[in-house]
Design brief:
Oligomer: single chain
Radius of gyration: 18 Å
CATH architecture: 3-Layer(aba) Sandwich
Number of domains: 1
Shape: globular
CATH class: Alpha Beta
Strand order of the largest sheet: 1-2-4-3-5-6-9-10
CATH superfamily: Alpha/Beta hydrolase fold, catalytic domain
């Protein structure tokens, strides 16, 4: 499926020129590429159930600082093509599609910003090509492995036990169940439910724009089922490989989590312990923001990213 272009006309705060590359088996992937072409590239990776629209306030801040801001729509989201079979979507497929995207744009000395599913996918793709990666900003993102070592580390628990059981926070399972039971999946419901401020109706409508009806929504329907809630799941296995790669990452690393997101609370400290470069930067806390901190505090989050890049020059 390909969402009709007229669904994206006159979206508030989103005046950007659409651009496309072909990834995987002939699928069109949309992205925003704003700012000077010779500016330091910053890749902004969204998650579920959003698209590049989520980063519009961040993009404006970064380009004002002279950076090149690149925000793709993951396959199945935004203006990108949308396979209709849910079985076409997997964590491995998403990392491959994003890896193809980065390769085609020939991005190096790259700062990657990840939030929500942007973490498993963005870090999963880029930590396999560390030669392209200069800095990492992790914001409100989990890398579920269900390992026993996570016991007591997370507000929304997800860890195995010595006797082979798995402890999972009920709210996490309720979220997963809700995404499957809703007759029509509307991203706006999740945006308003996971932000602190009231979001304008026109902005909520923009989040729904890529999905005219349920036939377009296989991607966001499938994502919650892919979470690595058991140690043997594909997502958990791939996230362990990502953690191994993060342990070898020597570049600068910043966590910028909000103070109003219980679903990812604790993951900032888990990531800080995993990445050697984390000790060189003071973790940032985005005050008065929910899970979608880009919507609640997009300008402030953009300034945090800009300061981090300016304060950690690449050698």
């Amino acid at each position: 499926m390909r969402t009709p272009d007229d669904r994206f006309l006159n979206l508030p705060g989103y005046p950007y020129t659409p651009r496309y590359v072909t990834v995987g088996d002939g699928m069109r992937m949309h992205y925003i590429d704003e700012g000077p072409t010779d500016g330091e590239p910053i890749l902004l990776v969204h998650g579920q159930p959003t698209w590049s629209y989520l980063y519009r306030k961040v993009i404006d801040v970064l380009t004002a600082h002279g950076f090149r801001a690149i925000a793709p729509d993951l396959i199945g989201f935004g203006r990108s093509d949308k396979p209709t079979a849910r079985s076409d979507y997997s964590v491995r497929a998403h990392t491959k599609w994003l890896g193809d995207f980065v390769e085609q744009l020939e991005l190096y000395a790259l700062t990657i910003v990840v939030q929500d599913w942007g973490g498993p996918i963005g870090l999963g793709a880029l930590t396999r090509e560390l030669h392209r990666l200069g800095r990492i900003v992790a914001a409100n993102t989990p890398l579920h492995t269900a390992d026993a070592s996570l016991a007591g580390a997370l507000t929304w628990a997800c860890h195995s036990t010595p006797d082979g059981d798995v402890v999972i926070e009920q709210a996490l399972l309720d979220y997963q169940r809700l995404t499957q039971e809703l007759p029509a999946l509307q991203p706006s419901l999740f945006i308003q439910g996971a932000t602190i401020r009231d979001v304008e109706p026109s902005v909520l409508a923009a989040y729904d724009a890529p999905f005219p009806d349920e036939s377009f929504a296989a991607g966001p329907r499938q994502f919650p089922i892919l979470m690595g809630l058991t140690p043997g799941s594909e997502c958990a296995r791939l996230n362990r490989r990502t953690f191994e790669a993060l342990g070898a990452f020597t570049g600068s690393f910043l966590t910028a989590f909000s103070d109003g997101d219980p679903s990812t609370r604790g993951w900032d400290q888990v990531l800080q312990r995993a990445v050697p470069g984390a000790h060189r930067t003071q973790p940032a806390v985005v005050a008065d923001a929910g899970h979608f901190l880009q919507e609640d505090k997009g300008v402030e989050f953009g300034e945090i990213i800009a300061r981090f890049v300016l304060d950690t020059p690449l050698s």
